[in-house]
Specification:
This protein has 14 helices and 12 strands. The protein is an alpha/beta fold. It has 2 domains: 267 residues, TIM Barrel (Alpha-Beta Barrel); 71 residues. The strands form 4 sheets. Strands 1, 4, 5, 6, 9 and 12 form a 6-stranded parallel β-sheet that branches. Strands 2-3 form a two-stranded parallel ribbon. Strands 7-8 form a two-stranded antiparallel ribbon. The protein binds zinc ion.
C-alpha cells in the first residue's frame, strides 16, 4: 500500500475507533453519499500495470459492501432523481454505488457481490471502449511506459521538457505521474496524436482489447445487458471515447455525449438516465457540457468533486467520493466523519483568526 493511502487508512481507522464515525452517521443521516469505483482486481496485482489506483482488490470491495448492507441504505441514482422530482426524502444514511468506464471486472467480480448483498449500482460506460474500437487513452499511456524497452526519453509537452526515466518499475510509475497531468491539459484533438507519438517514441504498439492485462479489459455488451436486466445495475453514459469534455469543442462534445447515449440505447434497449463526466473534476466539464448532457435526455450527471448530497446540490453536478482504499476509509467517508472533521477544522481556524 503506498504511503499516502496508508496514512489515509490510519486516519480513517482513528475516526471510526474514536466514535466520530457513529456520531457523524447520526448527525448527518439526511445527507446521501455517492461512491465512485472503477475496476476490481484479484488480490495479487498484475505487474504489467503501473497505476493500480483504478483497480480495487475485490476483498476490500466485499468488506465495503458488507458494511453498507449492514449499517447504511444503498439506493439507486434513479431513487435520488425520483426523490428530487417528488420533493421527497431519501432514506437516512443513503449511499449510491457507481463504477466508471465499464471494466469486465465489474461483471466478473463486483456483480456477484452486489447480488449477494442485494445492493444496487450504476455503471457509467465509455461506449467505444465496450465496442472494442477505442482503447482508453490513459490505459495506452500506462502500458506504453510499462512495456517499453527504453531506459529514458526526453519529452516536450506544453512548452516543457520532461526527462522520463524508465529504468525500473518505480521510475516508470514516477514518469507516469509526471506525464498524466500534462496530457490532461491538452486540447482533445491533440491528445490522441500525442499518445500515438508517445507509443512511437517508446517503440511499443498500441494495445488491442485482446492484449490488455485482465483488470483493464472492457466488459462486453452481453455482460452489460445481463446486469441491466437483473435490476441490480443501471447502465449510465460516460462518453464514447472518454475525452475530457472541457477540452473538446462544442461539436465534438455533443457528438461524444449523443454517440454514447445512442450506443447504450441500441444495446440495452433503454435511454440511459444518468451520466458521469470523464475525469470529473471542476475543470473537466463546463456549463455548456451540463446543458448538452441535459439536452441529450440525461436526468442527472456525476462529477468526481468530493462532497455530500443534500437538497442544495444540482442533479447535473452530483459530488462523488473516489473509491475508498479500505473498509475504514469507506466508513469514515459515508458516515460523514471526514466532512465533520473538515468542518471542525474550518471553525477552529475561523475562531483562531478572530482572537
Ligand atoms: Zn472514466
Amino acid at each position: 500500500m503506498p504511503l499516502a493511502l496508508h496514512s489515509r487508512t490510519i486516519k480513517a481507522a482513528a475516526l471510526v475507533g474514536s466514535g466520530l464515525a457513529s456520531f457523524a452517521r447520526t448527525r448527518r443521516s439526511s445527507e446521501a453519499t455517492v461512491l465512485a469505483f472503477h475496476g476490481l482486481c484479484e488480490d495479487a496485482g498484475d505487474p504489467e500495470i503501473l497505476d493500480w489506483s483504478l483497480h480495487l482488490p475485490v476483498s476490500v470491495f466485499r468488506s465495503i459492501c458488507a458494511l453498507l448492507a449492514a449499517d447504511y441504505k444503498v439506493v439507486s441514482l434513479a431513487d435520488l432523481i425520483e426523490a428530487r422530482m417528488k420533493r421527497a426524502r431519501l432514506p437516512d444514511n443513503a449511499v449510491i454505488i457507481t463504477f466508471d468506464d465499464g471494466y469486465a471486472s465489474n461483471y466478473e467480480l463486483a456483480y456477484p457481490i452486489l447480488k449477494e448483498f442485494d445492493l444496487h449500482a450504476t455503471i457509467f460506460v465509455a461506449t467505444g471502449f465496450l465496442d472494442g474500437e477505442d482503447m482508453l487513452w490513459f490505459q495506452r499511456v500506462d502500458l506504453a511506459l510499462g512495456r517499453t524497452r527504453k531506459q529514458l526519453i526526453d519529452w516536450k509537452i506544453n512548452n516543457k521538457k520532461l526527462r522520463l526515466y524508465l529504468g525500473t518499475r518505480e521510475l516508470r510509475q514516477q514518469s507516469l505521474v509526471r506525464l498524466m497531468p500534462e496530457l490532461k491539459e491538452l486540447p482533445d484533438t491533440d491528445l490522441l496524436r500525442e499518445v500515438d507519438r508517445l507509443e512511437e517514441e517508446l517503440e511499443v504498439s498500441s494495445p488491442t482489447p485482446a492484449d490488455l492485462p485482465t483488470p483493464m479489459r472492457p466488459m462486453t455488451w452481453e455482460m452489460a445487458c445481463d446486469m441491466s436486466l437483473s435490476g441490480h445495475v443501471d447502465i449510465g453514459g460516460h462518453t464514447h471515447t472518454h475525452p475530457i469534455l472541457a477540452r473538446c469543442d462544442s461539436m465534438a462534445m455533443r457528438a461524444e455525449i449523443c454517440a454514447c447515449r445512442d450506443r447504450i440505447r441500441a444495446e440495452i434497449g433503454d435511454l440511459p438516465a444518468t451520466f458521469a463526466y470523464p475525469n470529473g473534476s471542476a475543470d473537466d466539464f463546463t456549463r455548456e457540457t451540463m446543458l448538452l448532457v441535459r439536452e441529450a435526455g440525461f436526468k442527472a450527471a456525476c462529477t468526481t468533486i468530493s462532497g455530500r448530497v443534500n437538497n442544495d446540490v444540482s442533479l447535473f453536478q452530483l459530488p462523488r467520493y473516489g473509491s475508498p482504499e479500505s473498509v475504514w476509509e469507506a466508513e469514515a467517508t459515508v458516515s460523514g466523519a471526514f466532512e465533520t472533521l473538515k468542518d471542525w477544522r474550518r471553525s477552529c481556524l475561523k475562531a483562531m483568526s478572530m482572537i
